[in-house]
Amino acid sequence: MQADHLDGNALAGPLAEIFTADVSAAVSRCASCGLTGPVASLRVYDRAPGLVARCPGCEEVVLRLVRSPDAAWLDLRGAVSLRIPLSGTNPSAVLSDEGGRSGAER
Amino acid sequence: MTTFTRGFRGRRRGEDDRLPPGQYLTEDFPVLSAGPTPHVPLDRWEFTIDTEAGQVHRWTWQELTALPYEEPAVDIHCVTSWSKLGTSWRGVSLDVLFEDVETTADYALVHSYGGYTTNLPLDDLLDGKAWIAYRYEGEELAASHGGPARLLVPHLYFWKSAKWVRGIRLLTEDWPGFWETAGYHNYGDPWREQRYADD
Ligand SMILES: [Zn+2]
After folding, report:
1. Among candidates B17, B153, A76, which has minimal Cα distance to A84?
2. Domains and CATH numbers, chain B
3. Cα distances (Å, whole numbers) of residue A55 to A14, A21, A52, A78, B89
4. Could you tell me which residues come within 8 angstroms of residue B48 by beta carbon, excluding any fewer than 6 positions away?
5. Where do the record's region annotations for Disordered lie (chain A) (predicted)?
6. ipTM value of the model?
7. What is the pTM of this model?
8. CB of A13 within 8 A of CB of A29?
9. Beta bridge pairs of residue B74
10. What pLDDT band is residue A91 in, cutting at 50, 70 and 90?
């Protein structure tokens, strides 16, 4: 059977409109079950009026994103936190970040 | 202009009268879902109406499908811009389910197996405007389209027609549902193109 969802890398493009950092490389903590893992591992339901990203552990909603013609609506209630890696001025961090991005559509 | 084109346009004009602004016609039935498809065994399925006074009205699958049904043929309009004309359903009118329900509530919050919710004024569920539908085009309603049963409220955008419907909570104050809290319009009238919260 065809999968009914995508993985969290599908969020990279739509969220790039809002955040300058690549949020698919961030680590989120599920507000429902506490599971902590990369945003890229969330289950993204995109055949819907918006994007719905669910926890791979408990299937609760972690993140929702609706794009109207003149606004983006972002709901992060299902995430306790997002740890967004930022390279700063450390050259080695920049290098490892490049590797993390290779899977995302850019 | 050729005769063929005129004839074609004439037919299309009839269809266009039934097409709300910003919508296009589709022949297939796109599957939209905000989560995994819940599978509820019929012997454990139930539908409830909870009143603001705390009374619970409850129907099992057998009880629901033993009630008098209607077979509405209706046009449906999805907020993602597709419309489908003349879809045929079988379901129980909400008027039948509300016969013995005493309430002064103005608002309904519909909830589904799988956790989905959507809100609408109670008036929009009554007077022949809404059904609990369990057959589509002569067949059992497929799980992908909301089976075993879904709400059918075709005069509003189709996100209000909650798939896998489980019950209705009656409320004295409006409580926005899943999409209504994420940028979509609180009411969702396709003829007034009420797609987003600011529309
Ligand atoms: Zn979780």
Report:
1. A76
2. 20-27+41-192 (3.90.420.10)
3. 19, 21, 10, 9, 34
4. B56, B57, B58, B59, B166, B167, B168
5. 85-106
6. 0.88
7. 0.88
8. no
9. B87
10. low
Write out chain B in H/E/C secondary structure. Answer: CCHHHHHHHHHHHHHHCCCCCCCEECCCCCCCCCCCCCCCCCCCCEEEEECCCCCEEEEEHHHHHHCCCECCEEEEECCCCEEEEEEEEEEEEHHHHCCCCCCCCCEEEEEECCCCEEEEEHHHHCCCCCEEEEEECCEECCHHHCCCCEEECCCCCHHHCCCCEEEEEEECCCCCCCCCCCCECCCCCHHHCCCECCC
Task: Give me ligand 1 centre to Cα B138, in Å.
Answer: 39
A91 reaches B (C-beta below 8 A): no
Write the DSSP assignment of A66-92 as a string of letters. EEETTEEEEE-TTEEEEE----TT-HH
Task: Give dist(CA B25, CA B7) in Å, integer.
Answer: 18
Nearest by Cα to B195 from B160, B157, B162: B157
Domain ranges of chain A: 6-105
CB contact under 8 A, B198 and A70: yes
Nearest 10 degrees: Cα torsion A90, A91, A97, A99: -160
Q: What pLDDT, in 10s, does the model give residues B145-162?
A: 999 999 999 999 999 999
Query: Which of B31, B35, B159 lies closest to A52 in CB terms?
Result: B35
Nearest-CA neighbor of A15 among A64, A59, A60, A57? A64
Which candidate from B33, B79, B183 shows the least CB-CB separation from A73? B183
